[in-house]
Write a structure and sequence with these properties.
Elements lengths: L10 E6 L5 H11 L7 E7 L4 E7 L2 H4 L2 H5 L5 E7 L14 E4 L5 E13 L21 H11 L4 H8 L3 E10 L4 E5 L8 E4 L5 E4 L2 H7 L2 E5 L4 E6 L2 E6 L7 E2 H7 L5 E2 L2 E2 H15 L6 E4 L5 H11 L2 E2 L3 E3 L12 H11 E3 L1 H4 L3 E6 L6 H12 L4 E6 L21 H4 L2 H8 L3 E4 L2 H8 L5 E2 L1 H4 L8 H6 L2
Helix pairs in contact: 1-6, 8-9, 8-15, 10-12
């Protein structure tokens, strides 16, 4: 079954805890994952008899207030924060989603990633492979729910048979009235970690920052192609498929929180290494290094340490606004930059400034940032980007959907520098970026190279421009 690529750049969490309300820990975990999506949030909790779901549009604190949390008693729970890479901003697309198996078992599912297809048949006579059920949302998650609901056997069996045929990027958490399931795709595109709670329970989450938020001890990363089943206080795991690992390098560059661990590496340390490598590859005479806050701050520190140029905070960021990269529409992004960043004139006036950013997708934000530095009196503005030039779309869960919107696909670094109004502009090489992030052979760098670890559908490739 080919899909429309209606996935999400999201965060998921799952908890099974015999000694504490699952809802409160899911809530804390989602707060730690809020940076992964601000459009919608939700949670589902089972108490052994009933599975209840609360979800809505907005931030975690808006959707899951105290009253909603009180309505979710139980010891097994999952949660989700969503930003759509495609699909509508409607309640129908908020997660977790509910499903009912043919045998009457209720379940709830939340998903992070982007699916390219599901090679699994529905029941006889169902040409769509969806069990004859109408889809209430446009997301990949609904397709997963429909397939599981149409399977004639128990959920364990349904997952074992479905997951090997799911193509693309996914980390999913699934809850029934009393059991928690989690799975990571065979390439491991998106991160998923496992933690042990103080009361002996378990937690899975998109990032270790969520484990820290509830006092869980990090145990390990979920392995690519691994299914985890938490039942009756015990954990069972199995590998349902094997493939070359290809964790998205953009998690290190931009998406993940700097205090999270991915693949055994602290994201903040990786970003500092990216900045140091950038200083070696693209030095320039300057007086001060400043970051575009917040995600580029560690890279700017690494650049300053390696180059010996003074580090300073040249922009102040309004922390009460969401990420402009994660806001649909160029007009919203432009307005977001003006509201989010404000230069500090005393830092940049009369100075040769190196402004370090983590990545450039469309360059509209950087163009405004350079203009603001000029207006604040900067003598020179040199842009340095702590990742390679993004020139290709992402099919695995990041909002980089077409070549036409990527300035790096049509312009050289020098041309992009002219477009944003900088005195110079340079990117980090793919090789240095991969080396800093860990093991080049275990990373997906498709949006930088056009070489993907797995095939993409022809229709998706044609839509890419």
């Amino acid at each position: 079954m080919p899909l429309d690529g209606l996935g999400e750049n999201c965060g998921v969490a799952g908890v099974t805890s015999p000694g504490a309300p699952a809802a409160s820990m899911v809530y804390a975990g989602l707060l730690a994952l809020q940076h992964r999506g601000q459009e919608a949030a939700g949670a589902a909790v089972g108490d052994g008899l009933v599975l209840r779901v609360r979800r809505g549009l907005g931030l975690v604190t808006e959707v899951l207030d105290e009253e909603k949390l009180r309505e979710l008693p139980g010891t097994v729970g999952i949660g989700h924060v969503r930003y759509p890479t495609a699909g509508g901003s409607t309640l129908a697309n908020a997660q977790p989603l509910l499903g009912i198996t043919r045998s009457g078992e209720h379940f709830s599912l939340a998903h992070n990633g982007n699916l390219l297809g599901i090679d699994a048949a529905g029941p006889p006579g169902d040409p769509l492979g969806r069990g004859g059920r109408a889809r209430t949302g446009s997301t990949d998650t609904q397709a997963l729910v429909d397939h599981l609901a149409s399977h004639p056997g128990p959920l364990d069996q349904a997952l074992r048979e479905l997951l090997p045929g799911v193509r693309g990027a996914y980390c999913l958490v699934l809850a029934t009235r009393s059991t928690l399931y989690a799975a990571r795709d065979p390439h491991g595109f998106r991160p998923l970690c496992l933690g042990r709670l103080p009361d002996g329970g378990w937690m899975v989450a998109s990032e270790t920052a969520a484990l820290d938020a509830v006092g869980a001890e990090f145990v390990r990363d979920a392995q690519p192609g691994e299914l985890l089943v938490f039942q009756d206080g015990r954990l069972r795991t199995e590998r349902f498929a094997a493939a070359p690992q290809a964790t998205c390098v953009f998690e290190h560059v931009y998406i993940a929180r700097p205090d999270s661990l991915i693949g055994g590496r602290r994201v903040q340390q990786v970003r500092q290494a990216l900045g140091a490598a950038l200083a070696r590859e693209a030095p320039v005479a300057a007086d001060v290094v400043i970051p575009v806050p917040d995600t580029a701050r560690p890279a700017a520190i690494g650049y300053a340490r390696q180059s010996g140029v003074l580090y300073a905070e040249g922009f102040v960021r309004n922390h009460y606004l969401g990420r402009t990269f994660l806001r649909p529409g160029d007009a919203a992004r432009r307005q977001g930059v003006r509201l989010k960043l404000n230069p500090v004139p005393e830092v940049v006036r009369g100075q040769r400034v190196i402004v370090v950013d983590d990545s450039i997708v469309r360059a509209t934000s950087m163009k405004q940032a350079v203009a603001m530095l000029r207006a604040a009196g900067a003598a020179e503005v040199h842009v340095r980007v702590a990742s390679a030039k993004i020139a290709w779309p992402c099919f695995f869960g990041v909002d980089i959907s077409s070549r036409e919107e990527l300035i790096g696909h049509s312009m050289s670094a020098a041309e992009i520098g002219q477009f944003v109004g900088a005195d110079s502009l340079d990117f980090l090489s793919v090789e240095a970026m991969s080396d800093a992030a860990g093991s080049p052979e275990s990373l997906c760098t498709g949006c930088f190279t056009g070489s993907y670890p797995t095939g993409v559908p022809l229709e998706a490739d044609s839509r890419a421009g």
